[in-house]
Amino acid sequence: MNLDLAEIETFLRVVELGGVSRAAEDLGLSKSVVSKRLSDLERRLGAQLLYRSTRKVAPTDNGQLFYQSAKQSLQELEDAAATASAHEEGICGRLQILAPMSFGTQWLAPLMGGFMERYPGLEIGLHLEDRLNDFEREGYDLCLRISHIGDSALIARKLAGCARILCASPDYLQRHGAPQSLEALQQHHCIGYSNVTWRQFWSFGDSNGEELLSRIAPRSRFTSNNGEVMRELVLAGQGLALLPSFLIHQDLVSGALREILPEARPRPYSIYALYPRSRRASRKVLALCDYLHQHLAKAPWDQA
Predict the structure, then answer these.
(1) Is there a single domain that holds both residue 155 and residue 293?
(2) Helix 5-17 to helix 20-27 angle, to the nearest 10 degrees?
(3) 286 and 144, same structural domain?
(4) Are the C-beta atoms of residues 103 and 159 closer than 8 Å to each other?
(5) Residue 216 domain flag
(6) For 177-213, what is each residue's pLDDT tens digit?
(7) What is the domain extent for residue 209?
(8) Do the domain assignments include residue 231?
(9) Which of 66, 163, 190, 217 is the 20 to 30 Å CA partner of 28?
């Protein structure tokens, strides 16, 4: 069977972007060319790969199986091409990265220049998004997440620790007083994180954040889906918040923010680089993991 690589690549982008129009724009082609490539590929395979409607394009069962196999095969072809490349260590091609918004702007973006200098054959695509995405399906090679990792379908490499700290501004504490117990938190104004799909609880442990002591449902006067916005409201004296240490490390050092109830801390998160267990990690993914671990393993916010 003679398969056309351009048809396969077009099919992958249609599945990943969810439509012919978006794929055509991404590939710099007309919709008619994209549609023809899809039809030709289905004719070559003798199987329907996509369900088409006026609103949506989605893979059939056969299409989903073909997508997974074709994605892995193209990755292996890219690895083979990279190995033969004259670039440093043969690492070249396009690397698509998904990362959290605040961490991406404050810590990841400043590191990318050095990474690009080290590997001039790479083209980098960095997308910042706090919500949990099906990053493999959307075409990303690597995802950075700040969380607890329990998905066995993913390989997780820890890059750095990340405590979560209950904090407030000196101004707020002067006006409202500092809570003396976890139960007293419910009497205070809180700044909540809205980018969750379940009712928000603050879970506290011992000073290491390990042994669970209490779960509190905060009374959030203000919520946001972005940590930097939450930080600004806390700095403005509008309430207490649980914020990641990478975001407020300098504020704690300078005294602009103060830690509340340090004897009872939330269970700490870690910063992970994730990639699918279903396919072998490419050399470019491993190169980025090594580079980030080198620069973040001794991150200032993660030092005891």
Answers:
(1) yes
(2) 120
(3) yes
(4) no
(5) yes
(6) 999 988 888 889 999 888 765 456 777 766 555 556 6
(7) 164-259
(8) yes
(9) 66
